[in-house]
Design a protein that fits this description.
Layout (H helix, E strand, L loop, with lengths): L1 H28 L1 H4 L4 H31 L4 H33 L14 H6 L3 H25 L1 H4 L7 H12 L2 H5 L19 H7 L2 H11 L12 H11 L16 E7 L18 H6 L4 E7 L5 H10 L13 H4 L5 H7 L3 E6 L8 H8 L3 E3 L17 H13 L5 E6 L19 H23 L8 E7 L14 H4 E7 L8 E3 L3 E2 L3 H8 L21 E6 L2 E6 L2 E6 L4 E7 L3 H20 L1
Parallel strand pairs: 1-5, 1-6, 2-8, 2-9, 3-4, 3-5
Antiparallel strand pairs: 2-7, 6-7, 10-11, 11-12, 12-13
Helix pairs in contact: 1-3, 3-8, 3-10, 4-6, 12-22, 18-19
Length: about 600
């Protein structure tokens, strides 16, 4: 037993040391960048990167662990471990050396991008420097040789001592092997290991990139290969360009709706809120009495659709004006999100203090990397709340988060921009109040939405007592819709139909309804146009307040998209490569517009 435990420990230490040394070599190779980091940040690179090193080490140890638990003859196990490790080291050292050099050119860690060039290897060879290639090959073979020599001197001798096991020993080793799922996942919570786990620096992208384990990154993208690359020829190129430009033609100057030049701005994304529970939008009566009442105090946008069906897609659409994609989410790809526009960054240029506060796990769905790339002045998540306040399955309940926002804004520099999210109306719909609706899942959803609505009502009532309210705009918008209460199909427009309400003392309009069809992606353009900011970087965003803007919305689902106009909607299935539903006054131009939009999204996503 002791020999097996010793061997397990030595293998783990070897691989952890291997990956940490590889990270050190990466920092040395890019000394012109790492030398700009203080020693404390270098240490944090190594510390945060250790999480991902443990994950890859867990994967590496799975097969040897299983073999040690089986009655495999000792000589067979020893030979297997020798060749297994040699193959891994040969492959890993090649990838790590390649990664070091390619980062110098690409500015992002090695992923599945080289697969795009395999169809034209002559171009790859022709563009490389032969002397640099030779140096890299020598470096690769040297790193492989040294690594394997160390392994053969420290770990392999112990593998020869593994004797015949017993049932008890096998069960213990099997249990240890099963426990590797913990470092592999990197979390006991909802989140699996992703690049956001190791992102820690708010301003230095290189520091975050250096913390990534290159092997983990390659593995991740290879597993995602085919899902993160979209069809470049889905629709005619010339038609795509023409239709897309027509959809976003110059809408003219919108009417001014703010009473002040630089109002404070709060965006509150409401978890799973759907128009189906908002009575003024034709929804179920009594579920959101506070929201219903507040519609008389501001501007209600009555035909808004979520861009996607998940929180990670909704937040990117709201803050970056970027549409959701079928099959994946751009938030999962830090190198892509770092090239997106960010609403908070444009506001920061105007002197705004920017805050992101929510009660979720910041590592959920790679949120950390997106928020780090966004460069908010302050980011607060569930770990910034007291342990007793983290009493929801998903984190911190809504009334606690909203009270924190009030407290923060009382002491915040002005003007401020705050983006936050609710979470209590997420399944399993557990909320800290006595039920108002009782019954099955629909009623449970209603009850959780009622609690969120109650929290919003209390938040607005308290905000109105504050000095800063008179100069503030509050935007209430869902992060995405819900299949409930009608159990809508995944592709149905009703699932994506969401409320949006603008409130606050800075508005000069009250009790107003805007009927233009729009999306979450239109928030940046609509808001920034009021502030006199150029919105060209938000190419998928239009001004909802302009009478001349096209009235439409696009949304995506797995694996297809919807396109909604004033009096029609279309649904297209990408697997079937055909429209699967049409309602209203549809003409051929509408069909081609929707396909052109999808093609534009594909092109843009692939190019980032």
């Amino acid at each position: 037993m002791k020999i097996r435990l010793r061997l397990f420990g030595l293998m783990a230490l070897f691989w952890i040391a291997f990956f940490e040394i590889a990270r050190g070599l990466f920092l040395i190779y890019h000394f012109h960048l790492s030398s700009q980091l203080p020693v404390s940040d270098i240490l944090l690179v190594l510390l945060h990167g250790l999480k991902m090193d443990l994950s890859v080490t867990g994967y590496v140890l799975l097969i040897p662990g299983l073999l040690m638990a089986l009655p495999v003859p000792n000589n067979i196990f020893h030979n297997f471990l020798k060749y297994y490790t040699a193959v891994l080291l040969f492959t890993y050292t090649f990838l790590l050396v390649t990664d070091m050099e390619l980062y110098r050119h690409w500015g992002f860690r090695l992923d599945d991008t080289p697969l795009l060039y395999l169809s034209n290897p002559k171009e790859v060879v022709g563009s490389s420097n032969p002397w640099m290639t030779l140096a890299l090959v020598i470096g690769w073979l040297a790193l492989f040789g040294i690594s394997y020599w160390v392994f053969s001197r420290t770990v392999l001798p112990v593998s020869k001592l593994v004797g015949k096991g017993s049932l008890k020993i096998s069960l213990v080793v099997l249990l240890i092997t099963a426990s590797l799922i913990l470092p592999i996942r990197g979390s006991l919570g909802q989140s699996n290991m992703n690049a956001g786990f190791v992102y820690f620096h708010k301003t230095n992208t290189f520091a975050n990139h250096a913390a990534i384990n290159g092997i983990w990154n390659v593995q991740y993208y290879l597993l995602k290969s085919g899902k993160a690359q979209y069809d470049e020829s889905f629709f005619n190129r010339d038609k795509t360009t023409n239709y897309f430009n027509d959809l976003y033609s110059d809408p003219g100057v919108p009417p001014k709706i703010f009473q002040v030049d630089r109002p404070n701005v709060i965006i509150l994304a409401l978890e799973s809120y759907t128009s189906k529970i908002i009575e003024p939008l034709g929804g179920v009566p009594g579920v959101t009495p506070n929201f219903n009442s507040l519609t008389k105090e501001g501007i209600l946008f009555s035909n808004i659709f979520s861009s996607g069906d998940r929180t990670d897609k909704g937040i990117v659409s709201i803050l970056s004006g970027y549409p959701a994609q079928p099959r994946t989410s751009i938030m999962k790809f830090p190198k892509k999100t770092q090239s997106l526009p960010y609403l908070n960054q444009d506001l920061k240029k105007l002197g705004y203090h920017t805050i992101y506060t929510y009660g979720y796990d910041i590592d959920y769905a790679n949120f950390r990397s997106y928020l780090v790339n966004a460069k908010f002045d302050v980011v607060q998540s569930d770990r910034d709340f007291k342990p007793q306040e983290r009493n929801s399955k998903w984190g911190v309940h809504d009334h606690v988060v909203l009270n924190r926002i009030i407290d923060d804004l009382d002491h915040s520099p002005r003007p401020f921009f705050v983006c936050s999210m609710t979470l209590s109306s997420h399944e399993p719909f557990e909320v800290p109040m006595d039920p108002v609706f009782t019954g099955e899942i629909n009623q449970q959803f209603f009850n959780s939405a009622y609690y969120t609505d109650k929290s919003i009502g209390e938040f607005v009532a308290l905000a109105k007592t504050k000095e800063w309210w008179k100069n503030t705009v509050l935007i209430l918008i869902a992060d995405h819709g819900s299949r409930l209460p009608n159990n809508d199909p995944n592709y149905a427009p009703g699932k994506f139909d969401i409320p949006m309400l603008w409130l606050g003392g800075a508005l000069n309009l009250r009790d107003t309804v805007i009927t233009s069809v729009g999306s979450q992606t239109d928030i940046p353009n609509t808001l920034l146009s009021q502030l006199g900011v150029n919105t060209d970087s938000y190419q998928f965003s239009k001004d909802l307040l302009s009478k001349d803007a096209d009235s439409f919305a696009f949304y995506s689902f797995n694996n297809g998209f919807g396109f909604v106009g004033n009096d029609y909607h279309l649904i297209y299935d990408l697997n079937a490569r055909q429209f699967i539903a049409e309602e209203g006054s549809v003409d051929p131009i509408n069909r081609e517009q929707s396909q052109a939009y999808m093609q534009k999204v594909f092109w843009d996503f692939n190019a980032r």
